[in-house]
Design a protein that fits this description.
Helix content: over 70%
Order of helices and strands: HHH
Strand content: under 5%
Radius of gyration: 17 Å
Shape: elongated
């Protein structure tokens, strides 16, 4: 599949904006709280979308470094999203159990 050069560049710009922008709120929050205890689900979800887009971009331009880096990063970021979802649900259950006792 051949796409116009400008559309490949647009995909790269979207990826860069998502992945870079996703960390700004999280960095500010951690800096203000002086703790990384709370992770923003939304930030990591946006980061995962951006990383996926970078992976697509790497595939389109056939760049092995971009493909490998973003494939690994996507797995790690989706793992973080999954853990955040899981631990938030687990904490919600233990909070409810505490309230009942």
């Amino acid at each position: 599949m051949v796409l116009p050069e400008w559309s490949i560049t647009v995909i790269g710009l979207i990826a860069a904006a998502c992945t870079t922008g996703a960390f700004v709120p999280q960095v500010l929050r951690v800096w203000r709280l002086k703790s990384a205890k709370e992770i923003s689900f939304t930030a990591f979800l946006a980061f995962s979308i951006g990383t996926f887009t970078w992976l697509v971009y790497g595939l389109l331009i056939q760049s092995l470094p971009v493909i490998l880096a973003n494939a690994v990063t996507l797995v790690l970021s989706l793992t973080m999203v999954g853990m955040k979802w899981h631990y938030d649900r687990t904490a919600g259950r233990s909070d409810a159990a505490t309230l009942r006792s």
